[in-house]
Amino acid sequence: MLSDMKLVCGVAMFMCVVMLPLQAMAMSWVVSGKQASELINQGEVTVLDTRSKASFEAGHVNVSQRVTWQEFSMSKGKNHGELLRDDAVLEHRLRAVGVWNDRPVLVVGDPLGGWGEEGRIVWMLRSLGHKNAALVDGGYKALSKFGVKTSSGKASSVEVGDFKIARVGQFSASKKMLKSTLKKENVTVLDTRELREFKGETPYGESRGGHVPGAKHLYFKDLMDKDGKVLTGKALEKVLKSHGIKGKDAPIVAYCTGGIRSAWVVAILQSAGYSNATNYAGSMWQWAAEESEAYPLE
């Protein structure tokens, strides 16, 4: 009997050791499908799905809620693309989809077919003070391979969370900050849009075409492989070095049209240890709406 009790206690202690790091330690900005499935199977985790309504209803993780970046952002005017400034509104909307202060948040997307929405949600949560928000590498397709329970149709109801916003500025850049960097050689500005946009086309409602002077073009999908998995290690370093980023302490400002694709890039960079990577949320919607002499484009 005593030996049986020791065995049970030993198993219980082992389970605690295995589970504690996943629940308690600070997460990377990017987690693998396997890591995400382990967290989901343990419970006490929030899963947000940024895919289209049709994709979500065709199949989603049981506990997930569908979200869009637009519901947490300004939708018009010169501040189009920036996060809502009313913390009470943001808290209400995030709590409604089950975001808690002390629970990890996993964000699922469609890397190959999407616009980096999962990265935007992760960047938003980190900027609002949530320390354990991460995107799932490879998106829903990668996660669904690891035995998580899935459903079709609409999302199930979820317990309202208790998330309290505590904004941090270290992951964000403003138009004034970006303007001040234009003559600084130590700052790398990344334009994460399509090449046609970089060259001057305005397919998404920008007031003017072109790119921020000195910006380097790095299309956000160039940081993923053919399966939508994030480049890592030497493969990632090679791409970044070719764009003038030589060290992990290098100041980086990324932008796109409204801070979505660039937020994804920042999430990848932060996960890889580039701690001075920031997202300009207003991006071209905001910059191009300003007077051309003060906010030039090439």
Please write out the topology.
Layout: H1 2-24, E1 30-31, H2 33-42, E2 46-49, H3 53-58, E3 60-61, E4 64-66, H4 87-96, E5 105-108, H5 117-127, E6 133-136, H6 139-143, E7 150-151, E8 172-173, H7 175-181, E9 188-191, H8 195-198, E10 216-217, H9 233-241, E11 252-255, H10 261-271, E12 277-280, H11 283-287
Parallel strand pairs: 1-6, 2-4, 2-5, 5-6, 8-12, 9-10, 9-11, 11-12
Antiparallel strand pairs: 3-7
Helix pairs in contact: 5-10
Q: Helical proportion?
A: 25-40%
Q: Report the average pLDDT across residues.
A: 91
CATH superfamily caption of the largest domain: Rhodanese-like domain
Largest sheet: 5 strands, parallel
Strand content: 5-15%
CATH class call of the largest domain = Alpha Beta
Q: How do the strands of the widest beta sheet line up side by side?
A: 1-6-5-2-4
What general form does the structure show?
A: globular
- Computed structural class: alpha/beta
How large, in whole angstroms, is the Cα Rg? Answer: 20 Å
Number of domain units: 2
Run of helices and strands: HEHEHEEHEHEHEEHEHEHEHEH
- CATH topology term of the largest domain: Oxidized Rhodanese, domain 1
CATH architecture of the largest domain: 3-Layer(aba) Sandwich
